[in-house]
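step: validate -> pass
step: tokenize input -> pass
step: predict -> running
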Amino acid sequence: MNCSSEVKLDNSMKYFYLFLVVFLAGLESFAYMDTTVIVPLQRRYFHDKIINEQKLCDKADGKVDNIIRVGKNESINMHVTDAMFRKVKELQDWIELNDIIKNNNEKIRYLAYIENMLRSYRIACKKREINPVVFPSLLENFEAILKAQVDGKPMAPIVENASWEVAKLNTEVFSDNPGYKESNILFT
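step: predict -> pass
step: emit ->
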């Protein structure tokens, strides 16, 4: 083999690797696409943080398998799993598609609420301060508060109807809500 054929082979390998990198980057972008929602690059990191918290919640039962096991009842496990993954994703999509939440920083703030709620739930479960089974009602209450927050409404009337452990956790997440002081009185 002469020197010029080695250079041609080396150049073709460079093009192959370049193609491979571009192709794989395209696949990574595809992972952020839903049938209706494309997450802008500047917010992907914040969606990744939510996914990381979901994985840590999934890992809490000893196995990362996209099933949240909170007990022996498979129906309850599936209900909690559905809330953890599908309903949280729907909430993320709602934030991305919501026209009331206009700028990037606001959308990031609302995504951070989701991440903080998941982290608080995971830590409270680990400390046995909350029953893991309550996650669907926690998320339902969280969503109502989040939507009230977008509309500039206080959370106090929403947390009044929740169980103590759900209301306490969600009140901690929404410390900048107009009804925080009124809601926090319940837990001091």
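step: describe -> The first helix runs from residue 3 to 31.
step: cleanup -> pass
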